[in-house]
Amino acid sequence: MVKSKVINESTYISELAIHGMQEKKGNELVRLDLRNIKSSVADYFVICHADSATQVKAIANSVEEEIYKAIQQDPWRKEGLEYGEWILLDYIDVVVHIFRTDKREYYGVEDLWGDAEIKSYKSA
């Protein structure tokens, strides 16, 4: 019974992150469902990109605000805020990646998790 609660919570957090990305016009939003991959580090990766460091930071702020507003949870860790090329917001079971366009292409995070179920979302 506890496991389904955790999965539901991580799904909800991932949906909140997607909404935060959509609010600030993140590009090519995807959610990778990693729950059926034994070696995964989280339930979901939520990924998008933007053309400027300013927009990357704005998206990260929007994601944090949406999640905090809904469940009063801050990220466990935050990385990359200084340069705004790749910001990572770690919510333990949900890891949010916000890239500057060229960095997303360079790192190819989606390609590293080829077994994941990938769902795409439209920007708002």
The helix-strand sequence is HEEHEEEHHE
Rounded average pLDDT = 92
Major beta sheet, strand line-up: 3-4-5-2-1-6
Mind telling me the C-alpha Rg? Answer: 13 Å
Subunit structure: Interacts with ribosomal protein uL14 (rplN).
Keywords: Cytoplasm, Repressor, Translation regulation
Pfam families: RsfS
Subcellular location: Cytoplasm
Q: Could you characterize what this model shows?
A:
It is found in: Cytoplasm. Keywords: Cytoplasm, Repressor, Translation regulation. It comes from Mucilaginibacter pankratovii. With 124 residues, the chain is an alpha+beta fold. Helices cover 42% and strands 27% of the residues. The protein has helices at 2-23, 53-71, 101-107, 109-112, and strands at residues 27-33, 44-50, 77-79, 86-90, 94-100, 117-121. It has a 6-stranded mixed β-sheet with strand order 3-4-5-2-1-6. Helix 1 (2-23) crosses helix 2. The longest helix is centred in the first third of the chain and has 22 residues, at 2-23. It is globular, with a radius of gyration of 13 Å. The model is unreliable at 1-7 (pLDDT under 50).
